[in-house]
Write a structure and sequence with these properties.
five-stranded antiparallel sheet; 2 domains; 18% strand; elongated; 5 strands; 5 helices; 194 residues; alpha+beta; single chain
Length: 194
């Protein structure tokens, strides 16, 4: 008889623990903040306004783009206008390092007319966006006298000229990419409710 009451107490203890665990997990998931309160003033009521807001935020859905079966949008080197523009602007100098993952392009030492002075250009990407603060251009100068060379940082207007040329070229590339995308996929239609 004692064994039976012990098993009965164990079974009831398990039941109590299960109920306690269920209540604990329910309270834990309810306090996670899965459901956010929103104010109706922030969300448009009109269907056309909702669609326009969703498209502006990148939440739009189009059947033509859904049928392409692509895995997503990836900003590889071939699709980044800043990267492509930098390579286009620096195409006259041999490159030592072009690391898209690290966001850096380093040229080889370059001199005109086989002079003893040469420069090395480093372009660092701080952002994928086409902005002046998303790009840093550093130029080093090497001056050789006899067989002794000295390297120093070159502070001149050339840095800004290269940066400006890259930004202009990137803006043109982005504009042409957008025109190609609109030509291929068409504009996103926004239907207005009357």
């Amino acid at each position: 008889m004692k064994n039976f009451t012990f098993l009965k107490n164990t079974a009831s203890l398990k039941k109590i623990l299960q109920i306690f665990l269920f209540i604990f997990l329910s309270a834990l998931t309810a306090s996670c903040g899965l459901y956010k309160k929103t104010d109706y003033k922030d969300n448009p009521v009109n269907d056309a306004e909702k669609r326009k807001k969703n498209l502006e935020e990148g939440r739009g859905f189009r059947l033509s783009t859904a049928m392409n079966k692509k895995g997503g949008v990836f900003d590889f080197a071939s699709s980044n206008p800043m990267w492509r523009a930098s390579l286009d602007v620096l195409d006259f100098i041999p490159l030592v390092n072009a690391d898209y993952g690290g966001g850096i392009i380093i040229t080889d030492w370059f001199s005109e007319n086989n002079s003893k002075d040469s420069i090395k250009i480093t372009v660092m990407f701080l952002s994928n966006e086409i902005r002046a603060d998303g790009l840093e251009v550093i130029i080093h100068e090497k001056k050789c006298l006899n067989e002794t060379c000295a390297t120093s940082l070159l502070e001149s207007n050339i840095n800004n000229e290269i940066k400006l040329a890259i930004l202009k070229k990137a803006a043109k590339l982005k504009t042409s990419d957008l025109k190609k995308a609109v030509k291929k996929d068409g504009e996103y239609p926004v239907k207005k409710n009357n």
